[in-house]
Design goal:
The complex is a heterodimer. In chain A, helix 4 links the parallel strand 4 and strand 5 (about 100-105). Chain A has helices at about 15-25, 35-45, 60-70, 90-100, 110-120; strands at about 5-10, 30-35, 50-55, 80-85, 100-105. Chain A has a five-stranded parallel beta sheet with strand order 2-1-3-4-5, sandwiched between helices. Chain A is built from five helices and five strands; from the N terminus they run E-H-E-H-E-H-E-H-E-H. Chain B contains twelve helices and seven strands. Residues about 480-490 of chain B have low confidence and may be disordered. In chain B, helix 1 (about 5-25) packs across helix 2 (about 25-35), helix 5 runs antiparallel to helix 6 and helix 6 packs parallel to helix 7 (about 270-330). Chain B is rod-shaped, with a radius of gyration of 63 Å. The chains are: A alpha/beta, B alpha+beta. The interface between A and B is medium-sized, with 22 and 29 residues.
């Protein structure tokens, strides 16, 4: 069985590196996108098994991206973890409304994120 | 008379005044009096002088009437005297005629001598009558006098004849000369009497007419004076009442916050000056109001700029801090390889300090949002147990470092609560964080009670305590009980004020009980289920 693929859509390189390093010791394969537009394109093209979506993104916002992906048949059922900013109360509700499977508020503990990923997408 | 009745009465009299002011030339007169360039003092003095003049004129007219009545009564008296005098003469003539006849019959010379003596009195009376007599009457009197002299002559002749004992001749002379002369005198005297009586009648009529005229004049003058005084009073009082009413209306507008209006009164007296002052006041208030509005707008802009700045700077600060905390946690999680126990200590310190810094930054961000009125609660179900456990596990490392016991007392039967668990966690974090900071030894306990669907959280410490006079201000922004505390313990003084705001957003309240040297207990209540959010 091939490794399960996770797409991480996040514009901050350091944040991406944290998740990259976190998943290095696991069997998950990570693919990355730096903005909402690229995130949608890669998700539709590569059909990841799980998507980590930051809600504050350039070009297309994370909420709009989640909405678009939920509308597409290939990604309608893909688990999506929305990563919200602590600063913006109400993001949780909005993330739920557009169809995110779970949410995690920034700043999050990397190991909490890993736990959430494992719950939604058990390692092979 | 109750207030209502008085009001209607006032209303009615005022309605009459309004009618007179708008529908009669009085209104124009009132405005002209108001426009007069004279002081209120001068106007009032003028009005009173006019009324005084009316009184003087009235007195003059009365005096004149009284004088005229007196003069007329004197004239009447005189006329009556003259009528009496002329009648006396008439009587005297008749009497003399009979006396002479009797004297002749008795041949009594003495009586005749008496008659001759009477002549002087007769002449006197005539002379009195002649004074102030009409020309026609004077002529009659002259004729009487002539006839009288002839009669006297005749009587003297008769007397001589009587003395000579010639009775027959004396009688004959009396009959032929004396009697016709008497008759002539009697006729003339009667004419005088008639004339005097007619004069007196005329005088009486004229006096009556003149008295009637005097009464009419005085009555008319009195009515005119009262009317004039009333009109004058109306004019002068309304020339003052109008500006007072206008001022009342105008000040009412100002009182309602309607600045910048103008009061317009015709007066050029003190009331005019007062109105001008009010206009100045109104202008000044309007300018002040505009200025204040401008300042407010500036303040609002500045406040918003500050909030925006705080929001953006705290966001900018958080991004690298996230990375620091994330990588540090990966290091501690031995993602990059094994970490010696020695190295774990400083790495844990980095983690603790980083989280502390993050809390501070979050506080600044929260405050900026609260101030901008953009703080919203994210309501969801939460478990009080988990919430308290989370707070304790977050702060236990810090408490352990200081050797403090950190415990909780949460009953098992607390139902699932509804509210913003994240914010309530923040509140507890702030309170417990403070407790750890200000407690040197002893213990800190987080206790929760649920009574009547209200949760009460208590954070009890055995710390330094807060002096009674500073308990009031601990929840104010940027405030610590003592300025030196900031130096000793650090902190921005934001935690408590933000905690208070969050508690109030949930519809709860917060308070503190403390004793210096013994410790403090911070308590706050939160409804078990928060359904509607208060606006920040």
């Amino acid at each position: 069985m091939s490794a399960k693929t996770i797409l991480y859509v996040e514009d901050n390189e350091l944040n991406r590196k944290i998740v990259r390093d976190l998943l290095k010791r696991t069997s998950y394969r990570l693919i990355e996108a730096a903005d909402g537009e690229a995130g949608i394109a890669i998700a539709l093209e590569q059909r990841p098994d799980l998507i980590l979506m930051d809600l504050q993104l350039p070009k297309v916002s994370g909420l709009d991206a989640v909405r678009t992906l939920r509308g597409a048949p290939t990604t309608a059922d893909t688990p999506i973890i929305a990563i919200t900013s602590f600063a913006l109360s109400g993001d949780h509700q909005k993330a739920k409304d557009v169809g995110a499977s779970a949410y995690l508020a920034k700043p999050y503990s990397p190991f909490d994120l890993l736990g959430m990923i494992r719950k939604l997408l058990p390692e092979g | 008379m109750d207030a209502n009745e008085r009001d209607t009465r006032v209303g009615r009299s005022e309605a009459i005044a309004r009618f007179l002011l708008t529908r009669s030339p009085l209104g124009e007169v009132v405005r002209r009096v108001a426009r007069l360039r004279a002081s209120v003092h001068a106007k009032l003095l003028g009005a009173f002088l006019l009324i005084a003049l009316l009184l003087v004129a009235m007195t003059g007219v009365s005096l004149q009437a009284i004088t005229s009545v007196a003069r007329h009564s004197r004239l009447l008296d005189q006329a009556r005297e003259r009528v009496d005098a002329s009648r006396r003469i008439e009587q005297a003539v008749g009497v003399q005629m009979n006396v002479i006849r009797n004297a002749l019959t008795l041949r009594d010379e003495a009586t005749l001598v008496g008659i001759l003596h009477d002549e002087e009195r007769f002449a006197d009376t005539l002379a009195r009558l002649e004074r102030a007599a009409s020309p026609a009457e004077r002529e009659t009197i002259t004729r009487i006098r002539v006839a009288e002299r002839q009669l006297i002559k005749t009587v003297e002749e008769i007397r001589s004849l009587v003395r000579a004992d010639k009775a027959e001749e004396a009688m004959s002379l009396h009959l032929t000369e004396g009697q016709p002369q008497y008759r002539e005198i009697a006729t003339l005297v009667t004419r005088v009497v008639r004339s005097e009586e007619a004069g007196m009648d005329r005088l009486r009529q004229s006096v009556e007419a003149s008295n009637q005229r005097a009464v009419l004049l005085m009555g008319g003058f009195a009515i005119a004076a009262i009317f004039l005084a009333l009109v004058l009073g109306f004019i002068i009082s309304w020339s003052f009442i109008i500006p007072v009413h206008e001022a009342g209306t105008f000040l009412g507008q100002v009182a309602r916050g309607n600045f910048g209006g103008r009061i317009d009164v015709p007066n050029r007296d003190e009331f005019g000056a007062l109105a001008e002052r009010m206009n100045e006041m109104s202008r000044e208030l309007h300018q002040l109001y505009d200025h204040e509005r401008m300042l407010n707008a500036q303040l609002e802009r500045a406040s918003k700029a500050k909030s925006d700045f705080l929001a953006s700077i705290s966001h900018e600060l958080r991004t690298p801090l996230n990375a620091i905390l994330g990588f540090n946690e990966l290091l501690l999680g031995e993602i990059y390889g094994p970490v010696t126990e020695e190295l774990k200590v400083p790495l844990t310190d980095i983690q603790t300090s980083g989280k502390h810094l993050l809390r501070l930054i979050n506080n600044v961000l929260d405050l900026s949002k609260i101030e901008a009125g953009r703080m919203e609660l994210a309501l969801d179900d939460y478990a009080v147990h988990d919430l308290v456990a989370g707070v304790l596990s977050g702060l236990r490392p810090l408490a352990s470092q200081k050797g403090l016991a950190l415990t909780s007392a949460v009953p098992d039967d607390i139902p699932v609560a509804h509210g913003d668990g994240g914010r309530i966690t923040q509140c507890l974090m702030n309170l417990v964080g403070n407790a750890v900071k200000f407690t040197q030894q002893g213990r800190i306990e987080v206790a929760v009670d649920c009574r009547d669907d209200v949760l009460q959280y208590r954070v009890i410490d055995t710390g330094t305590g807060i002096p009674a006079d500073r308990l009031e201000t601990v929840f104010a922004e940027f405030r610590q009980a003592d300025a030196t505390i900031a130096g000793q313990f650090g902190g921005t003084g934001l935690g408590l004020s933000i905690t208070k705001k969050f508690v109030e957003l949930h519809g709860g309240r917060i308070w503190v009980e403390s004793e210096v040297g013994t410790g403090s207990t911070f308590s706050f209540t939160i409804p078990l289920r928060v359904e509607k959010v208060e606006t920040a």
